[in-house]
Structures are given as C-alpha cells and as structure tokens.
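Lab notebook, bench 4. We co-purified these components, and the gel suggests they stay together. Before we commit to crystallization screens, I want a quick structural picture of the whole thing.
Request: model the full complex, all chains together.
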Amino acid sequence: MGHDTHVQAKSKKQFEYDRHHNAMHMRKQVINFAIMIFLTFVAFAVVVADFSPYFIKPVILLLAGIQVVLQLYSFMHMDDKKASHMGVIATFVWSGVLIIFPVFLTFVTIIWW
Amino acid sequence: MSSVAVSNKKGFGATLWDYLTTVDHKKLGVMYLFAGTLFFAIAGFEALLMRIQLMIPNNDFVSAGTFNELLTMHGTTMLFLAATPLLFGFMNAIVPLQIGARDVAFPFLNSLGFWLFFLGAIFLHLSFFLGGAPDAGWTNYASLALYSPGHGIDFYVLGLQISGAGTLISGINFIVTIITMRAPGMTFMRMPLFTWTTLISSTLILFAFPPLTVGLFFMLVDRMFGANFFDHTMGGNTIIWEHLFWIFGHPEVYILVLPAFGLFSEIIPVFARKRLFGYSSMVFATILIGFLGFMVWAHHMFTTGLGATANAIFAVATMAIAVPTGMKVFNWIMTIWGGSVKVTVPMLYALGFIPSFVAGGVTGVMQAAAPLDYQLHDSYFIVAHFHYVIVGGIVTAIFGSMHFYWPIMFNRALNEKLGVLTFWIFFIGFHLTFFLQHFLGLMGMPRRVFTFQADQGWDLFNFISSIGAIMMAIGVVLLVINIIITAKSKPLNCRDYWGDGRSLEWAIKTPVPFYNFKQTPLIRGFDPYWLEKHDGNKEGMIYAEPLGDIHMPNNSILPLVMSIGTFIAAFGALYHPDGVAWSIPVIIIGLGITVASMILRSVKDDLGYHVHVEEVIATEEHLYGKGGNK
Ligand code: HEM
Ligand SMILES: [Cu+2]
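Here is the predicted assembly.
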C-alpha cells in the first residue's frame, strides 16, 4: 500500500485533450446554470401571475424536483460515471431521499400545528 | 541500523500518553470496550437500585425523584453510552482485520469520535454531582422535559449532543472504510456478515442521528435560550419532539441490534463448523431491515392520537419488519442444523440468544397491532418486550463476542469454565427478571412508577423480578472477575484460537502487529481463511503485494483537545439560563479551543510516516520469533 508514487509529465496531446474536455465541461455547467435560473424565474412568475393554488402548488413542487436532480447531477457531479464509487454514492443519496420522504409526508399530513 | 530495535517496555506515563494520542483502530477498540463496560456497570448498578426499590410494595429505599433520575440515566446510559460503544469496540477491533485493511479510512476521526463520545458521557454523568440528573425518561418527552426544574435536562441535551457527534463521526468513518478499503478480491458479496451489518448500521447512524441533533438543538434553545418550538402555550407543538425523537429512536434500536446479528452470524458458523446458511439472503435481510426501520417510528406514538389511517399504515409497516428478521432467524437455525456443534461459551450465548430474541420479536409484533397497543402502551409489557430484544439480543451478543474475540483483541483467552457459569447465572437471572414483567403489564402495572400498592397481585412477580436482577448483577461481576483473572494469564501467541475460524481476522497471528497485515492479503472467496486452510496454505492467506514499506498515520493529541473544547463550551451553555456573567465567555473559550485545534490540524500537514521493510521484519521476529508470521 502506498509505495511507488509515480509522477508523470503530460504530453502535448494530453494537454490539449484535457483543455478541450474542460471547455466542454464548463459550457455544460453554464447551460445548466442558466436553466436553473430560468426555472426559478418561472416559479416566481406563476406566483406573481396569481394562478389558482391548485395550479401553483404542483408546478412549484415539480420545478423543485427538477432543480434537485439538476443540482445533484450537474453541480455536484453525480453524472460523472467514471468517478470512483459513483454507484455507491448514488445509492446513498437516493436512499436518503427515500427515507426522508415518509418523514416529509407525515409532517405535512398528520402533525397538527 | 539502530531504528530496527523494537521496544517493548514503556513507563506508565508513556503508555498513558500513547493511549491519549493513539489513532490505532485496535487500541481505540479496546478503549471503547473498557469505556463501554464502565458505563454498563454504572447503568447496571442504577437498574439494581430500581429493582431493590420495586422489590416490595410501598418501599422507600429511594425517593420518587431519585427513582426518575435513576430510570432516565439507566436508559440513556445503557443505549448511548454502554451498548453503542461496546459494539463500536468490536467494530473497531475486528472490521479492519476482516476486510484486510491497515486501519480505518480516517484514523484521526476515529480517535475524535471516541473522545467526543467519552467526554459527552462524562459530562452527562457529572449531573449527579451538580444538582441532579435528568429525570424525564430516556425519551425526554418535551411535555415533561421543558418543565423539569434544575439542570438535569440540560445535561442530557448537551451530553447527548456531544457524544452523538462522536457517534456520527465514527459511523461515517466505518462507511468509508468498508466501501473503499477492502483488500483486493473482497467484493461486497464476499464481505463477512459482521462487516455487512457494521456498514448498514453505520448508514443508519448517518441517516438517523441528524434528526436527533435537530431535536436536541430545538430542546436546547427552548430550555436555555427561551425559544418555543415545543411549548404549546406559545404556538409550538410538543408532539414534534416525539416525532423527531422516534425518527431517530426506532432506527437506533436497529443500529444496535444489526451489529449484534452480525456478531452472531460470525459465531454460529464457526462453532457449527458449517458455512453460514443463506449468506445472500442474510445480506438482503440486513438491508431491508435497515430501510424499513425508518418507516415505522410512529408505532411508538399510536396513543398520541395520530388517527386511524396513520396508525394502520405504521402498524402494517412495523409488522413487515418481522419478515426479514424471521429470515435471519431461520438462517441461523439452518446453519446450526446438521453442523457438528461445539458448545463453547460464545456458542452458548448464541443458543440462548435465538429463543430470547424471538420472544422479544413476537411481543414486538403484538405491540405493532395498534388497537392492542392501546392496552399495552406504557405498561410493564413494554418493559419486558424491549428488554427481551436488548438484553436477549444485544447484551448476549456483546458477552458472547467478548469470549469469542478476546484472543484477537488481547492475545489472551477468557476462562471457559467461569464463562459457562456466568452465562447460566446471567441467562436465568435475565428470564426471571423480565419474563414475569409481561404478566405484570397485562395485569395493569404501569411502567416508570417508583412504587406500587400491595395486594394487587403484583407483589410476588415484582419480588421474583428483583431476585432475577440480583442474579444478573452477579453474572456481570463474574464476567469482570473473569476479565481480571485473564489479564494475568499467559499470552496465547497463536492464530485461529478456536481452530475453526473462517474469516480473515483469524488468519492473522496474535498479538496483531500495529500495522495489521505485513502485506495486503488477496481474497479468493467468501470465508477466505477457511478457503486457504482447506487448500493447505499454512500461512492462512496469500498476498496481493510484495513486502514493502508500510505507510502509517501519526498519533495526535488534537482529537482529545478538540473534545475538551466542546466539553468546556457545554458548561457555558448549561449555566447560561442562570444569568451568570461568565457563561458566554466560557462558550467562546471552549469553542475557541476546538476551532483552534481544527485550524492547527488543517494548516499543519500531517503526512504520517513509513515503517521500513527492515522494521517490519524485525517487528515480526520480535512478536513471533525467527521467521516471523509463518
Ligand atoms: C430489535 C431490537 C429492538 C429494540 C432494541 C427495541 C426497543 C424498544 C424500546 C426501547 C421500546 C420502548 C419505547 C418506549 O420508551 O416507550 C420499544 C417499544 C416498541 N417496540 Fe421495540 N425494539 C426492538 C424491536 C422491535 C420489533 C422487532 C418490533 C416489531 C416488529 C418492535 C415494536 C415495538 C413497538 C410497537 C413499541 C411501542 C410500544 C409502546 O410504546 O406502546 N420493536 N422497543
Ligand atoms: Cu420502534
């Protein structure tokens, strides 16, 4: 364990490949960021536009769901399949969601405020 | 070269310093074991006092107020400060060996977890000397706790907050260790069951402790800084505490019982001398229990008026847990079935465990039927139920595993004969104490009462129950005597003490060197040591790498200093409501110490050190004689 740590110099090809890769990544990041800002704007817009609550509530919940997925997969890099243990990480994150859902449900249904 | 010389004798001061600064999982395992035993003894003594009080009707051995304090401290200590650390002791000592790792993933955090737990525990126990212990039950329901005078509840809240942080840290550490540090070839489906249950139970810690932290924090600001989360007269809601507490509390019982299941799943195949029956279904059942454990918390609150629909849903969910649990029980029985069983002390505990735990599970399903629970709730039936699962399931696992793993942890073996005697005294005492409590409950005796009137038909059963408690106490004293005698016995210096070891921890010769395996082993299948033994490999394992330098972490005093900082800050918070001038400065100084040590830790790189090949060879020769670990 831990012996033989090699240091390797990057070749020019490798450097260019990485550069291109990073640029692509950045573009994706910016696009997702724009989408998230837009969704936030939509959420505010439906409230300001004074639609019926039966429309507003499901729409906002839906948008929130999309935001969570974007946040996790784009900003927190869960879409990076090659990263080590990504399967385990995804399992843990979604188990957490599954576990907290009934808690959320009981708190909004049977607790008397 | 001179550094090759291996030192063996150290002075007392040096040894103490070594333990205060150690980051070695084996030493921390031992420290958890002894700290856990200490608190087990304290909480056991409290239980004994309660049983003496309840021995005869209208007794005045302790006052009502003292009884409440004993009751609360008994429950809190047993669950958080005895059972949890004792199991952590085994996890620390055994899991890295089972998966072929050098240590846990974050040795520094491992030490921090221990010291936070220990200082939190000390803080809680100081309440006895500083104006009275907490007295609102281990569940600390807000409707009682908010109105409890004195500082008892504040000790509970702050003490659990600190030791809970330690538990959470250790839990995360085990998750990372088991996921990332398995030896080559040790796939998930080749992991021993104790490692599996440690993983799942650490995951439950990860998900269950944050709700407790939130609840405790609300309680803290309610009591110490005048917030009103749980005060209904100010628009709060006392039931929210119960929800937060049980969202943590039910998973907590599985956090404790799953590692116990894991320990028995190690003990039973070794002494039945047969492969564990239904390995993959055991893994599946463990995961399923973990999941379902989060969906059932409201079964503790059936009588708070959740409504029929909610009660029905939680009742069905609760009953569903009986299915994976039953799978496990049948798998253990099928492992024993047809094996050539050797009845050693650990196996005795395992054989005692199965019927006792099943009895506890059956009463659990009874309580899960919501309409029946209206009858059983807050009666002695509940006390009988949870002691059958806790004592019959968890304590038997801990005692059995002490005998089972003592050779690996201390290179000594606990005395068998005394062990058998201890088992019978403890086991008979346990059933005497708790079996009749089922009927006391059905006859209407409420739980958490400090005395009762004579001639209601409860006198005899209570008397017998107290006799049983005294027997259990004798059993525990015998175990401690056994430990003391064993400390003086000759070292074993062998591998595979029981002769039928199957998983990797038995392949290593004791005493285990500080770096564990001199080379990382290669795992060829489930029960790797048994496989190698079977193939005639005398060394017990094959290696995944040549002998090379070993990278090890440095010791550090910082975890202890960080924990002392939180300990000091807790006193500031505790006395804040009294309006003393020094409370805020003390909070700041305490947290300052913690943060300063954190900064020191982050700024100063600590890259560890290398044990060179020559030193490894010298250590092996020093421990095992010429030729090293062969
Ligand atoms: C396996 C380890 C278990 C442990 C350590 C454990 C522990 C406990 C504890 C401490 C209580 C008392 C709560 C209180 O203070 O009011 C309790 C109550 C309860 N347990 Fe368990 N339990 C376990 C397993 C089970 C199982 C398997 C079931 C059902 C299938 C179950 C069902 C219940 C129910 C319904 C209650 C609530 C009773 C009431 O408050 O009226 N438990 N348990
Ligand atoms: Cu429960």
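The CA atoms of residues 101 and 107 of chain A lie 10 Å apart. Worth comparing against the SEC data before the next meeting. Chain A has a mean pLDDT of 86.
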